[in-house]
Design a protein that fits this description.
This protein is of the alpha/beta class. The chain contains 9 helices and 10 strands. It has a 6-stranded mixed beta sheet, with helices on both faces. It starts with 16 loop residues before the first strand and ends in a 6-residue tail after the last helix.
Amino acid sequence: MPTDHLTPIDSSSPPDDILKVRNLVKLYRGAVIPAVNGLDFTVRRGEIYGLLGPNGAGKTTAISIICTLLRPTSGTVNLCGHDVVNNPAIARTLFGLAPQELALYPNLTARENLRYFGRLYGLTGRALSGRIDQCLALAGLSDSADSRIDTYSGGMKRRTNLAAAVLHTPQLLVLDEPTVGIDAQSRNMLLENLKGFRDAGMTIIYTTHYMEEAQQLCNRVAVMDRGSIIATGTPGVLIDQMEGCSNLEDVFLHLTGKQLRD
Ligand code: ATP
């Protein structure tokens, strides 16, 4: 995959903690049990951090708070030294979000969508056009860039969603189940893109229900259940620590149980 198309982030800076989530709580209006309940985790610069959990564990809620779409009931989120709740405008320049629900205008082309989002990020002129071309190429969309999104396949839409999220070369890329419902080719391209972004110094938070993806891709994972983290570590260490587990899916089922979560 053409990683040379990426604008490299300054990777000479020492490894540090880019995101600190502390004692985060979210109680939705009318709910009795918090969706996020005392969540604590730290993401290090340059890693792919997997946020895993069964349906309803609180992953999207946590991501929505980190990305300033939702206010927490209590607790703090610090991104690159900025409190995201008190400084949402600064935070929005630092992260890129590819949400679970596609955030694209269906009646615009991919290029028009990227131009719209690029302007929101303050990019203009040649810098914007150049970056759009780079991101379209990365996502394998150069040849179809001028077709409307509503003519795209599911995989093309997901890839456009990712291109929009990295347009402004964010410090932190947040992906909420980016590989749902796409074919093996698009999935492979997305995963290769993410490795390329990491190699260029970007930090990534990644949620997925596909444990083999997380095992292959993530430097560290956190397993969430009922709003809290119940285990964290590298996939390899978690697998080694848990008796009878030979892969991350075994670890996940061991930790969260086999009962259905509806
Ligand atoms: P999934 O894997 O299914 O996407 P998730 O781990 O992302 O699940 P959330 O979507 O964060 O989990 O949901 C956590 C809990 O909060 C669930 O019980 C859900 O029903 C509840 N919830 C989510 N959004 C709202 C809302 N807007 N109002 C009330 N409750 C909500």
